[in-house]
Structures are given as C-alpha cells and as structure tokens.
Here is the input.
Amino acid sequence: MKMTFWKYHGTGNDFILIDDRDDHVHLSQALIQQLCERRFGIGADGLIILRNFDGYDFKMTYYNADGNEGSMCGNGGRCITAFAKAIGKIVNEAFFSASDGDHRSIITAESPITVKLKMNDVQEVEVHEDFIFLDTGSPHYVKFVEDVTSVDVVSEGREIRNSSRFKKTGTNVNFVQTSGSELIVRTYERGVEDETLSCGTGVTASAIAAVVNGKLKADAGTVDILTIGGKLKVYFEKEDGGFKNIWLEGGAALVYKGEVHI
Here is the structure.
C-alpha cells in the first residue's frame, strides 16, 4: 500500500509526519525503524503521527528512529503544530495531548513559520559535581564544557547514556557552552543513538540547568540558544523549588511531501 507522509524539520531535528485522523495507520517497530533509516528509508530522527483525540485539537504520538515509542519531543511538538496548520486542523493555536501530558502551542510568525510550545513545569533538578540531571518531558543529562566544538559528542554521549545508571531506560546527553547570555548546545539523543542537529527538550533542560548552576541569572526569563541546526529561544519563570511557564520557540519547516510503499 501507499502511505502519504510529510517531512518536517525544527532547526535540523527532522521528522516524518503522518496524518492519521482516519485511524488507519498501524506501523510496526521494524517498519518505523526502516522509514527513519537514512540510507534505505526516508531518513529522520523520528516519526510522528497526528490523530484525533476528544477534548483536544489532536494527539501527538512520537516514535524514535529506533522504532520505539518515545517520550516528549520539543522540536517534534513544534513541527506537528506547523503540520496541523498546513492540513487545516488548526489556525494559529493548538491544544494537544502528548506522552507527557497536555501542551499548548502558538504560531508566532508565518514567513518563515515559527512556533512557540509550552513545556511542562520542572520541579526537580538533580545537581551533581560535574553534571545536572532533570526531566523536561524527556530525561536530560547536562554537562557544561569550555569548548563545545572540541567534544566528541557521540563517543562521550554514548558512554554516559549506557552507563550503569542510565543503561536500562537511557538518557539524552547535552554538552553546553556559555557565550555571554547565549548558550551553545550539542545533544546526543537516546533512541537515535547519535548526535542530532538540535533537541528541543535538550535546549530547555540546558537553559534551566544554566540558571541552577549560576551560569545565567535566575531572572533571565529568556535564553537564546544556538544549536548546529539553528537558533532557539527558551522562556521561563523561576519560582521557589522549580520553574514554570516554560516555552520553547523556533522555526518549523516543511521539507517535502511524498508517498512511500509499505
């Protein structure tokens, strides 16, 4: 059978988008893995299915490139918002369900498409001697370095991800450099098991971690972040014991629409 798909990217973090409002698409783990494979498939960091869901504009189901259903994907949430607008499901705002709960998103610009996504509040942050660990919809290990360009992200990230603490469920690993009031972030993503050009939940975790360890002022409110794939902004309010009103903003672009035989 033929399946129509759309390819989107959010600052280089790329996804296969599928419109399943008719609830007829059922993909195996092996097939998702094949579709995301860059040499023999379409190629993507993940696959996202949009479905109808009572009380919401839509439901977002996200699969990692390894074919397993994943946790929240921030750039994916921004891309599915742009996709929902393109297929006429929303106008400029969305209220949708994802693996970590409810999310709101707003299209803040249309040329090029820019999407602002509300993330869940963060109440718990683990501070260790050489890293910070927190969950922003997905688990993130954040390590601050002097020169992020010199880090072997794949080798070091894979070693941390497969360490005794994280081997069973995995973790994303972020290497972060401060540059004035800006952060430069590179991320190793579990499920992709490689470096990606950008990670939405990762830059969100990195911004919060930078406040927690004093790299950025607590009242910063907005953090500009540079990834290999482009620029993102993280907004937040710090309160006793955690962070609230966290938003992730950046571009979300259609790459192409196609059909694949499955």
